[in-house]
Design brief:
Length: 453
């Protein structure tokens, strides 16, 4: 029988403190609930009951925990995260057999424990999507099917989708859930086509209880996977299985989406998420600071929320920046720290590797030798109409703005105008070598200016 050395709670407290000091970015408030089980054959086992949390730790925090355990104990320990099923309760003895009952589907699920309904702040911009998601979780296939959530980048679509998965798993762990990005779906599909495993692919997707696909707008253009998705959708839908989709545009506004899919997507509930209002932004900052275990005074939340109104990802980025600044200066977070940390930080797309719309516009203006005022004007002369459409096409391809947002940027144009532009340039690139060359040159100029680091 292997020797099991009990680890004291004290060791765990020290590990927590070490992580908070050295790796604050991974720390979550629920780390308090992780229980040390003991050391067996040089491996420290930590009990994490919730599978999604356990997978998160295993996936992203193993190195940091190992480093902490070694630093605290002075021994060359390995760390592993175990579930209840790995432990014989009577002896608290570690069982080294692989986790039981992890189905093929659970293994595929990559969910973030941060994205639950508990941490989701409801406001006017997301009330409908939230209510619908709750209803769907409680009544799979019976409330709204499909549930289609759309809206701009960083507004909580992925969060809502994953919250449904986690809620369902919590109440009925045996539910077969397929959660994946549209790209993964297409890649898996192409992989199976190549290796002649279409039967497996079909069996796998068509036997799910719930299929959740994030960023379905990427389905456009990939005709073969559209076709396959259509059949998957129909099979699941007809057998009353739940389908949930997210997208950066409403079904009608996704370029190159086949009409039959547009109508399928519209037949359940289409819920749009909008930017959060000031009060919601403050509440989100509070929720986020609790989650990552930091104390943020009210005036600092108010300050950040007033400065950043673009999207929630930016809001979180600002909070992280303020925390980093406070830690580096070894002081508690306060208003002065927040001001210093965010000084000169222009809201939106500050840290992104994506080109900004402004970079795209600059490149287009230079290439066509036209004036900015003409580009932004309502003039329809072909000397400006084509460059404007190219701008919209490029913005759609290279930024994560929605059609509405791009339209808004080009002098308050309707999203259908943007959609038309995107389609027009898409077709003309195939037919007209001049247009195709122009687009490539412009693309080359701003892609070079903005190397991905
Ligand atoms: P999207 O998928 O729409 O681009 P995400 O779901 O990735 O956006 O959200 C971006 C970040 O903002 C995530 O960290 C998410 O947890 C957070 N977030 C979004 N909406 C909310 C909300 N209503 N309450 C709390 N956090 C939110
Ligand atoms: Mg997303």
């Amino acid at each position: 029988m292997k020797k099991l050395i009990q680890t004291s709670g004290e060791t765990k407290v020290q590990i927590d403190a070490y992580l908070r000091k050295n790796h604050p970015e991974i720390c979550r408030h629920w780390f308090d609930e992780i229980e040390p089980v003991g050391v067996d054959s040089g491996t420290l086992s930590l009990l994490v009951r919730e599978p999604v949390r356990r997978q998160y730790l295993q996936r992203t925090c193993l190195t940091q925990f190992t480093e902490a355990a070694q630093a605290i104990t002075g021994r060359l320990l390995a760390v592993r995260f175990v579930g209840d099923e790995n432990i014989d309760e009577s002896k608290r003895k570690i069982n080294s057999s692989p986790t039981s009952e992890t189905t093929e589907f659970e293994e595929q699920l990559t969910l973030s424990p941060d994205y639950t309904f508990e941490t989701f702040v409801v406001g006017p911009g997301n009330r409908l999507a939230h209510a619908a998601a709750i209803a769907v979780s409680a009544n799979l296939g019976g409330a709204y099917n499909p549930l289609f959530v759309h809206g701009g980048v960083g507004l909580g679509k992925t969060h809502v989708l994953q919250a449904v998965c986690q809620m369902v798993l919590k109440h009925k762990p045996s539910t077969r859930i397929g959660y994946l990005s549209c790209q993964s779906f297409s890649e898996m599909f192409m992989g199976c086509v190549k290796s002649g495993r279409m039967q497996d692919f079909r069996h796998r997707f068509r036997s799910l209880d719930i299929l959740v696909i994030d960023d379905i707008h990427f389905l456009s253009k990939r005709e073969q996977s559209q076709e396959e998705f259509f059949h998957t959708f129909n099979t699941l839908y007809q057998s009353g299985k739940q389908i949930i989709l997210s997208s950066d545009a409403s079904p009608n506004d996704i370029p190159d989406l086949e009409e039959r899919l547009v109508s399928r997507f519209n037949c359940g509930l289409v819920a749009r998420v909008d930017r959060p209002c000031y009060e919601t932004r403050v509440a989100i900052l509070k929720s986020k600071s609790t989650l990552i275990n930091i104390v943020v005074p009210d005036d600092v939340c108010a300050y950040i929320a007033a400065r950043i109104d673009s999207n929630i990802r930016e809001l979180e980025g600002a909070l992280t920046k303020v925390r980093g600044y406070a830690m580096a200066s070894n002081v508690a977070i306060n208003l002065d720290v927040a001001k210093a940390a965010l000084a000169g930080d222009r809201a939106s797309s500050s840290r992104s590797n994506l080109p900004t719309i402004q970079m795209i516009i600059d490149a287009v203006i230079v290439y066509y030798d036209i004036k900015l005022s003409d580009l932004m004007s309502k003039r329809r002369h072909k000397s400006v109409a084509l460059p404007r459409q190219v701008c919209m096409w490029l913005a759609r391809k290279h930024t994560r703005y929605s059609l509405e947002e791009i339209g808004g940027y080009f002098g308050g144009r309707d999203h259908t105008t943007v959609l038309h532009a995107v389609r027009t340039i898409g077709n003309r690139r195939d037919e007209d070598p001049d247009v195709s060359r122009a687009v490539d040159r412009i693309e080359g100029s701003f892609v070079r200016e903005n190397p991905v680091d």
